[in-house]
Amino acid sequence: MDSIKQTGPGEQKYLTVSDLNWYIRQKFDKDHFLHQVFLQGELSNFRYRRGGHQYFSLKDDHAKINVVMFRNDFEKVKFEPEEGMKVYLTGRVSTYEVQGSYQFYARTMEPAGLGALYERFLQLQKKLSSEGLFNPDHKRRLPLFPDKIAVVTSASGAVIHDIMVTANRRFPHAEIDLYPAQVQGEEAAASLVAAMQQIQARSSEVDVMIIGRGGGSLEDLWPFNEEAVVRQVYAMNMPVISSVGHETDTTLCDLAADARAATPTAAAELATPDLASVLTDLAQLQARLLHGIRAVIEVRKQALARLDSSVVMREPQRLYEQKAQQVDMLTQRMGDLMKLRLQGASQRAGNLTQRLQAQSPDKRVMQLLQQADFLDKRLVTAMKHLLEGKGSEFGQLVQQLNDFSPLQTLSRGYTYTTNEDNEMIVSVKQLQAGSQVQIHFADGRAKATIDEVKEEENG
């Protein structure tokens, strides 16, 4: 209170308006009773301001108070307030210093007369949630192409009409079966459960179920919050789409279902694919598949053409020339080694003979000569077996090369064709009517003239 003025003979203290309003506000804010006030009354001067704070009045038969509800709090309101509607508010009382007035700052708003019902809703929601009925892990995927769709709703309402029109437009193949039920009133919950139990008995025939009704008050939608109905939705053997009330309404059936739709039309769109879009996607996939196949075939054709025109195919003997040369070198080395060993053995035998002759041990000489002769024969036999083994390996190699030889292919009745420049013909695109070609056989060749060229599609 820094702006106090002192005037007059008695030096009286005069407050500014701001000081007084500030002082009064402090009194309000220090009163703990005014921090949490539960207020009931009738909405007055209510004009909805989209995306902003709400300013209105709350009145009864004898008095009225101004109310402010900030945007963050108003966005949590679960119904649409209207002029003249009786409501319950919770909040605090304080002053607006600029105008020197006091007002109610509302934090929550509920329609009057529904407090007990809403409390039941919250309690049941907590109970079923703790049991896992609303667990996202339980949610099932909707079928892509349903054959049969079961609908639980009123037989006379607009819900079934909107669902059938939308489903028939998007996916005429799907069959829509209506299981009529009461959707409002004391008997509605039992009627809804009975209809779902009929569907459950035929679960092997049903691909997806839609349960729903149009908009209404909390009392009107209450059957879809009944515990028996919610548990039956959770227990269904097929995926369930819930479409109850408007987009701003939320029922326990919505939470237990596998998917929620804001309108019956949206529910039908969730349950069915758009056939036109599916056909377009299939056509695009088919085109991509054919393009890929043709590309692979073209790559293989080019590789085959390169192989067919390669030096190895024209001169297959080059495949085994180096191997044959290696075999010749090995044979030569084996022969030289055998000669060296024979010469060494002969020299050792001669040396032994000389030593024996010098000592004249005739019997010992004879034994050594026999041993030398025996070793000589073993060496010859070993060399013979070694050469025979290498010769057999060489023969197998030659046979394998012959098996892959184009000449061998020709001997089985196949031919290949060249043009006048002796170039290999691998495609009809290299020919035209009147072209001169040579057809090569295993035992010769023949000249021919092309009368007609016809290209065939591959794929």
Automatic annotation (TrEMBL):
Localization terms from the record: Cytoplasm
Question: A single Pfam family, by name?
Answer: tRNA_anti_2
What's an example GO BP annotation here? DNA catabolic process
Task: Please state every residue range assigned to the domain named OB-fold nucleic acid binding.
Answer: 15-110
Q: Name one GO molecular function term.
A: nucleic acid binding
Q: Does the keyword Nuclease apply?
A: yes
Location (main, coarse): cytoplasm
Q: Which reaction does it catalyse?
A: Exonucleolytic cleavage in either 5'- to 3'- or 3'- to 5'-direction to yield nucleoside 5'-phosphates
Q: Name one GO cellular component term.
A: cytoplasm
Record-listed E.C. numbers: 3.1.11.6
The organism's superkingdom is given as Bacteria
Per the database record, which ranges form the Exonuclease VII large subunit C-terminal domain?
133-448
UniProt KW keywords = Cytoplasm, Exonuclease, Hydrolase, Nuclease
Please verify whether the record's keywords include Nuclease. Answer: yes
NCBIfam families xrefs: xseA
Q: Which family does it belong to?
A: Belongs to the XseA family.
- Briefly state the protein's biological role: Bidirectionally degrades single-stranded DNA into large acid-insoluble oligonucleotides, which are then degraded further into small acid-soluble oligonucleotides.
Please give the subunit comment from the record.
Heterooligomer composed of large and small subunits.
HAMAP family per the UniProt record, alphabetical: Exonuc_7_L
- Listed name of the protein: Exodeoxyribonuclease 7 large subunit
Protein species of origin: Lactobacillus porci
* Gene name per UniProt: xseA
